[in-house]
Amino acid sequence: MQYAVLAAVAVLVVVGADWHQIGQAFFRADMIALTAQSGLLRAIGNTLLYTLGAFAYGVLAGTVLALMRLSQVAPYRWLATAYVEFFRGLPAIIVLIAFSLISLILPGVAIPGGEVGSVWLGLGIVSSAYLSETIRAGILAVPKGQVEAARSLGMTPGQATRKIVLPQAFRIILPPMTNELILLVKDSSLVYVLGLSTAQYELTKTGRDLASSNSNMTPLIVCGLCYLIITLPLTVLVKRLEAKNAKAR
Question: Nearest-5° angle of CA 78, CA 70, CA 80?
Answer without folding.
Answer: 30
